[in-house]
Amino acid sequence: MTLYYSIVFALLVFEMAMFMVLIVPLPFSARRKLFQFLATSEVVAKINYGVRITFIFVAVLFIDAFQRMMKVSAESHVAQENQGFTDFRSESNYHAKKFYAQRNVYLTGFTLFLSLILARTYSLVLDLINAQEELASSVDGASPEDKQYKTQVDTLKKQVEQQQQEYNRLSDELAQAKAQVSDKKFD
């Protein structure tokens, strides 16, 4: 594998590692700190810029690898139409060229595809974190109407508790009065 395809492979492995970091289940506070670091760090911004430039070169490599694959396929069709493969070495050479061309297309194609998936997953997780923060802030910093509603609910709970206590007291008195009345009837 040539140097630039080795670099593309390293980039693919790096993308897979970053994807795993994005999807690993973390507590909300740790995930928020991680994404805050990724969003605000200047070092990460410079690396991101360099990686985006690299993807332009990967796209060029993809186009080149695709053209080579098509060229190898066309050469095989020409060779088969003329006389076919005459010896084992030419057939092996053709299969090796075809394998390398297809490998390079797949390598660069998967790298480009995973970069799109990685960018979309990052934005979705970032949106999720923002939505969770908004939800937490709306619960913690309730509006005055919500606070008034909560006060009313607390007041109602106290009233229900007091009424339950009064009902229990009155039902106990009624039971005692019935017991006294039934005892006097039998005397």
TrEMBL record:
Q: Which InterPro entries match?
A: BAP29/BAP31 (IPR008417), BAP29/BAP31_N (IPR040463), Bap31/Bap29_C (IPR041672)
Q: Which domain of life is it from?
A: Eukaryota
Q: Which stretches make up the BAP29/BAP31 transmembrane domain?
A: 1-136
Q: Which GO terms describe its biological process?
A: endoplasmic reticulum to Golgi vesicle-mediated transport; intracellular protein transport; protein localization to endoplasmic reticulum exit site
Membrane topology note: Multi-pass membrane protein
Coiled coil as UniProt keyword: yes
- What does the function comment of this entry state? May play a role in anterograde transport of membrane proteins from the endoplasmic reticulum to the Golgi.
What protein name is recorded for this chain?
A: Endoplasmic reticulum transmembrane protein
Species name for this entry?
A: Malassezia obtusa
State the encoding gene.
YET3
